[in-house]
Amino acid sequence: MKKLINTAESAVEDALGGMAAAHPALRVQDRVVYRAGGPRPGKVGLVSGGGSGHEPLHAGFVGYGMLDAACPGEIFTSPVPDQIIEATRAVDGGAGVLHIVKNYTGDVLNFEMAAELAEDNDVVSVLVDDDVAVQNSLYTAGRRGTGATVFVEKIAGALAEEGAPLTEVARVAGEVNERSRSFGIALTSCTTPSAGKPTFDLPDTDVELGIGIHGEPGRTRVPMASARELAAVAMEALHSDLALQGDLLVMVNGMGGTPLMELYVLFAEVAAFVKGKDARVARSLVGNYVTSLDMQGFSVTVCRLDDTLTRLWDAPVETPALRWGR
Amino acid sequence: MKKLINTAESAVEDALGGMAAAHPALRVQDRVVYRAGGPRPGKVGLVSGGGSGHEPLHAGFVGYGMLDAACPGEIFTSPVPDQIIEATRAVDGGAGVLHIVKNYTGDVLNFEMAAELAEDNDVVSVLVDDDVAVQNSLYTAGRRGTGATVFVEKIAGALAEEGAPLTEVARVAGEVNERSRSFGIALTSCTTPSAGKPTFDLPDTDVELGIGIHGEPGRTRVPMASARELAAVAMEALHSDLALQGDLLVMVNGMGGTPLMELYVLFAEVAAFVKGKDARVARSLVGNYVTSLDMQGFSVTVCRLDDTLTRLWDAPVETPALRWGR
């Protein structure tokens, strides 16, 4: 294993130091990444978090128009309640706090505990569970939360910025999740620094369909195929779960080790697939947004937009990983 | 080899199709990627290009405040003169055209030929040769052009947007190159789709210091070391070539297969190194900007800023890969 780290133990801390150094608009304190400047009075605060190793998720989405704070855990490990409580208190500008939680058992438990213990704060949680690949998995009861997290954080963040109340921000966040679906395919395993070897074995001839973002098993393994065929597998899985219809927000996401060129090849296939349905790619993202360390592979996430969601998606955002319109 | 492509032959064309589908503000025609809307009268046109496989370079930097057109060649292969001539003619709004050329023999020849043949257009070329690793290499007489290309394209693009004349845009572009230095380190080789196997062998215990962006050999191989040690090797190489002094623009760039988390670990070390010199990280980029397909590794590029260059760096930009301030 060759990784650009100092030690496996210090990797998360060291990376947070790098984020702080690179982004003066962020403040990193006690394992929480904040927007510098503190809470805006009257604005709903948005807190998310989860295991590290999925960068830029979540800390890369802290900033104007998106998250107020992100709580990174150790690699592939939930943040602890103390981090979440601290973040919740710090970002509450008097209008309450929304917790955006990916559906993994550890995350759900720790965010729930934090919400209970932060009793002076009005907290509502929204669960993201967009991955259609499997019903339960190694770390999940129900569906896993993956790519839709980016959509939920962006759209809820824009609505909070407009001054909407907590109940409304939470309602729309939940609606984005309900309208979103994801499916991922792995070409290789990831390797965690502490394990030092691939999480699972995948022969050089096969791919894993429906992979999770921690290397959890998917639906099945099949022989490696063309971008067109793999895109079709992913899109059929999404379409059969929630029909592709109307204006879509589409993300073709790299798992960390996939060249951007290949993601564009895939995006062309995804766009062609959508054209064949009663739908249109209205907005899109192509790049590394929800990764799994050095895994090679991709996921596709689609969200059925309406006018309100499109407007909120287009609203200005200024974070390390998503930035436009100001 | 597992790659998300349809065929090795169609990979570049398919990826360009994906870019066109993902970015309505771009227009792709005859292997040239343009800003939609055509040339702005009186604005100097900026054209760059080079082999594919370095995405987002160059097509990902086409847009407001940066390039007017990019000419992608086949993978690791210069674009042909016809592409460059076509792009040059199309973006000339009457104020002439700047060619931004990375210093590789094929690119230099083909851009020169295109500049000669586009005789109705006033063309000035600027050569980028920022890589301090080696003096000559497999594909270069003199130093190779790598990360500084992003700085040159951004800063010259901002100046052109302000309406500066061609001579001035070319002068500042050259100045950015002169003030910039790069050094790269590879953990693994890249694999081109047509070869189907790694370009070179690198044992699992070693890294290649001073790697080129096509897998050309660097200075030497050494045993794998910590992020701190590798960052120091790169920074010493830069510092001994051009002293780190004053305000710096610093890019920690991933080679395509390196997780963002590791790039932030490196950035922390780079920032700490700079602190130990008579210099300051005034602006920074952390991410995949000049890649080498699926190679794992990184490069560091620094540019010594002055007030004008800082202002131009900060100016609004709106491209697929670099976007801020509007």
UniProtKB/TrEMBL annotation, chains A, B:
A matching Pfam family: Dak1
Signal peptide: none
Key words, A-Z: Kinase, Transferase
Protein biosynthesis found in the keyword field: no
GO molecular function: phosphoenolpyruvate-glycerone phosphotransferase activity
Enzyme Commission numbers on file: 2.7.1.121
DhaK domain mapped to chain residues: 7-324
PANTHER family documented for this protein: TRIOKINASE/FMN CYCLASE, TRIOKINASE_FMN CYCLASE
NCBIfam families in UniProt: dhaK1
Protein name per Swiss-Prot or TrEMBL: Dihydroxyacetone kinase subunit DhaK
Organism from which the protein derives: Nonomuraea spiralis
